[in-house]
Amino acid sequence: MSTDTFEITGPLPEGTTLIEASAGTGKTWTLAALATRYVVEQGMPIDKLLIVTFSRAASQELRERVRARLEETLAELESSAPTEDPLVEHLRDCAPTELALRVRRLRTAVADFDTATIATIHQFCHYVLRGLGVAGDSDPGATLAEDLEQLQSDVIDDLFLADHLRAVPDTPEYAIARKDARHALNNPGAELHPTDAPGPLGVRMDLVRRVREEFERRKRRAAVLSYDDLLEQLAEALEDEDGPARRRMRDRWSVVLVDEFQDTDPVQWQVFSRAFACEGISLLLIGDPKQAIYAFRGGDIHTYLQAADTADRRTSLPTNYRSDEPLVRSLQTLMNGVALSEGIVVHPVTAHHKTHRLSGSPDDTPVRLRTWPLIDGERQPSIGDVRRQVYPDVADDIERLLASGAELDGRPVQPQDIAVLCHVGSDLAGIREELRRRGIASVLVSGTSVLRTPAAEAWLELLMALEQPHRRDRVGLAALTPFIGWTAEQLDSADETEIETVAAQIRSLITAFHRGGVAAVLDVARSQGLAERVLGQVGGERDLTDIEHCAQVLHEQVLQGMTGLPSLIAWMMKQSADDAVTPADSRTMRLDSDALAVTLSTIHSSKGLQYPIVYAPFLFNNWLSDKEHAVVVHRDGHRILSYDRADLNGSERRADDLGEHMRLAYVAMTRAQSQLVLWWAPTYNSKDAGLHRLLFGQAPNPEALDQLLRSRTHGNAAEPHAGRVGASPDNAAEPHAGRVGASPQGERRDRDHGDDHEDSPDDLTGSRSRSVDNPASLLDQRAVITLLDPIDKHSIATNQRFLQTWADHGAFSLEVIGSGTTQPAPPVEPSTERLTARWFDDSIIDRDWRRASYSSLAAAGEAAAEAAGELSEPEDGAVGRIDEEVIVVPGGFGAGDFLRQSPGSTSGNAGDHTTPLGDEPKPGDGNAGDHTTPLIDVPKPGDANTEPSPMADLPVGATFGSLVHAVLEHADLQARDLRANLLDNVREQLVFWPVDLVPEALVDAMEAVCTTPMGPEPDAPRLVDIAKTDRFSEMDFEMPLAGGDRPHARPVLREMAEVLRTHLCDDDPLIDFADALAGDAYGDQTLLGYFTGSVDLTFRHDGRFYIVDYKTNWLGEPGEPLTLADYEPARLNAAMGHSSYPLQAILYSIVLHRYLRWRLPAYDPGEHFGGVMYLYVRGMAGPATPVVDGGRCGVFTWHPPAAILDDLSKVLDGGER
């Protein structure tokens, strides 16, 4: 189909019309003018007008522009004053009665303008689905969610972890699995391929499919919809040709204008084509395929091209209203007739501005290309080397321009007239730093998430300090943030008094957080001089903007229920590390200043904008990764997301990537109004870059390029057949158009040389030398050079001749940076000094410093329990919990009875293995059937409480203990239907902790545990009574011992024995443990470094705070049924006294004591510290659990005196008591 020039005063379009714009050709002006004409000439009511675009900012701008166009046109038609507006002239050209009618129509349209539908595609879909009701098959109660990244991450993590714990063979690494799943979730409409892959790829594909299914299931369960769901639902509602959805939409709107149509995708086009591609509806598709650069957001240029083929009419906008004519002419020389990808060609345009508005600069040339002097034989520079030269060169050039007295349209050039455009933010940061050094202000415009900025890192470090203010390392990191403002030198030289000053400042922020969340923290930080500190630094506006933006994002999370510091920290860490490409609008970095400053922007963010002077320093660089995980390909009209290596390395993927970079180069170069400054260097990455392919891909050698440019200059530019980097509109659909080096006749041109061939200007051999004599014949051979066609690697001299040829034809002025040739580095004199290995004095290492846990301290206390120590629970959660260990106390009575041969063990090494008391096969079962030694040397249980334990028939073993812990950690114990909630959690946790049991049987026992009073009183708190806001499951901690990183003493465990004897009475259940601590095995252990661990449950009740540890130990007699009598208080006290559990109770009490002291205002241990509870769950039978001798069966409690907590804490800190 031929393409006509669109005239705004021509016949109004009917049917489906494609209007192809180019950069600066007035797309938005045209759209507003068309809307006005339909209202004025056809009398179309404004509410029958539908204008759709792809972003909220664009829809708001369109609304304002269309309203302004209507109002301005009304004013012009009511006036008889002369006008230069072609639209007004056209509308005035009618009879007086018709003119009066048109004025009335405009007045009505302006008055009723709010009834016009001007919206984003997603707003439009939401509006339509609500109006369709049951015809739209949409859940009216569902919530539209802008950002579902967190839900996506949760699904990916959950399924990956489940596969990992089930040891699924060939499970991919986490990073690979995450990227695989992200691709699938971000391309919901694409078919997955391959469908039946064997081996590791098959496992990956299975995970991807399950992630998609689970994501949809969780969305339904949460009653949320994504924007993609809206589109899918509307497309499905429109599938029936005679359905109510199509009829209602066609009755509702008569004229539909779709802006930025190049960014459409298959589902969006389904919606528009099904609803409006019909007789009686004017469907106008307006876009510039040369600016289709949002493939990573789902934009599909293939859909645009397919839609273009179905249009009734194709037109193009011919006039550039942005750029000066000299700049347009230079860009035409460089790009006219070039195919930026198959079917997308740069058409000629005329310039509206005939003069060059820039004057008096060091170089007024409209396009400048800067490069370096290179010498044949030198190694190709790496992009890292080039970056280090480009950053300062860009800043130097801008500095020269601003100091030159240059004028723009008669006024001095200002920093805000200049923009620097790069592909990635890291390059913008490098250039910004160079501008800072020269005192040139800059402002960053970026699509980067604010959660991936230095400000977010500062917030994370502050929150981590607020969470654990006792840790000097965290306080030190917080001191280096803008919230405190220390330098590294200050931190390095700070003494304890100065550190304490920072800690006090941190504590004030903790108080603020508990009072009013993140917003209150920011308020206090402002009062402490945050703004003054930040704004006193160069570029402080950017940092302060990001700090305040991060605070807003964090505050939103608090409002959504994420009230705890640990959850906020975990969320921030996940967000900053997330590989999601596109941040939600609310998290995109904001403009930091409206001051006079150079604009620094990514190319993607610059689309739609214009700047008088544009610097684009890295268009010569593009690295095509060969490690992609998935790629979208198109086969037989289907959009396929392929993980197949053949597709990942295939020609379609390469063509799409190269085409995207060509279009990015086009967007960057066409932002300029008066001058464009480019750089070029022959790096390893240049061959796949847009600018490099423009410079060296349009002809095989400089002589052929000269002939090509002469043909363009002599009026053949409009013929897009001569020497270009892709296919013309006429042959784009032909089979040969996508082939490497295909000629117009579809014949492949063979290459005599590989990609690494370098031709010499003095020695052109073979067909190349013959072609030089007849450049025209060479042009004929190379009339089509597709994006798949490799670019020949030339010598440095040939490259320079290419560039000079372009410069001679007016494409740009060529500037060689510096002067002269690069001098080789002076030779390095070899050293005659004999080299020796440096000696390391390891005596400086303090081998007593460590990160200790309860398990490691207890295990080290008894060499005879070495095996049990190896099985002890690692409190850092590195491996699965084995909680039911009892490490014996050396020298205690009955100590040997705690250790028995593992069931099923034999003689030899296996027979020497000992296992901890607890969840093992019951005495008398299996191989342990002959074992009759009592486990605990205490009086036999009484006969009064012979009721069986609810867990008497349940399995034993460490895995069972971990299962019980996990259910108690994750279940909602205040759920309306507790049993159903417990059952769901048991079934879910059985995946991770597989035990042979009937889930309902465990639920029966767990329900009894949760409803047992945790004290002798009938109204004592139960687990089901503790609200979520009053409980903290698995509280991780890291407590410094004797100063942590900077030890100031060397306390030992023995010192705690004296404290116990001083404060505990003779009948205290832990008093006997003082003897164990005083012994050599325990007492000699040094408390130096950090104490780490995790508390099963910390809860608050009636203003007091308690520690809970769950135990599933089997305390029954060998060969006897397990009853509640086995868990009477006397037996629990004995079990505690003959184990290491007292050490755990003591240490964890100190942890909670310190935590409350730091966090709770006016903390008083006598008033606020409740005590420690060990819940032996096998002895808990619900509300009727017996009370014996003043204690509840299954519940061991310890209430330490208030004074002992301070003294024990001082021991661990190495201080004086």
Question: What does this protein structure show overall?
Answer:
The protein folds into five domains: 3-137 and 231-317, Rossmann fold; 146-225; 344-444 and 597-816, Rossmann fold (3-Layer(aba) Sandwich), CATH 3.40.50; 449-587, Orthogonal Bundle (PCRA, domain 4), CATH 1.10.486.10; 940-1213, Lambda Exonuclease, Chain A (Alpha-Beta Complex), CATH 3.90.320. It is 42% helix and 13% strand. It contains 43 helices and 36 strands. A seven-stranded parallel β-sheet has the order 1-10-2-9-8-3-4. The protein has a seven-stranded parallel β-sheet with strand order 20-21-19-22-25-16-26, with helices on both faces. Strands 27, 30, 31, 32, 33 and 36 form a six-stranded mixed β-sheet that branches. Helix 16 (454-467) packs antiparallel against helix 22 (565-577). It is globular, with a radius of gyration of 38 Å. The chain starts with a strand and ends with a helix. The model is unreliable at 579-583, 716-787, 819-828 and 863-936 (pLDDT under 50).
Shape: globular
Structural class call reads: alpha/beta
Instruction: Give me the CATH fold name of the largest domain.
Output: Rossmann fold
Share of helix, binned: 40-55%
Compute the CA-based radius of gyration.
38 Å
Strand order of the largest sheet: 1-10-2-9-8-3-4
Enumerate how many helices there are, as a single number: 43
Number of domains: 5
CATH architecture annotation name of the largest domain: 3-Layer(aba) Sandwich
Amount of beta strand: 5-15%
- Terminal-residue CA separation: 93 Å
Number of strands: 36
CATH class of the largest domain, anyone?
Alpha Beta
Q: Output mean pLDDT.
A: 81
Regions with little confidence, pLDDT below 50 for 5+ residues: 579-583, 716-787, 819-828, 863-936
Major sheet details: 7 strands, parallel
Region (DNA-binding and helicase activity, interacts with RecC): 1-824
Keywords: ATP-binding, DNA damage, DNA repair, DNA-binding, Exonuclease, Helicase, Hydrolase, Isomerase, Magnesium, Metal-binding, Nuclease, Nucleotide-binding
Active site: 1109 (for nuclease activity)
Domain UvrD-like helicase C-terminal: 335-608
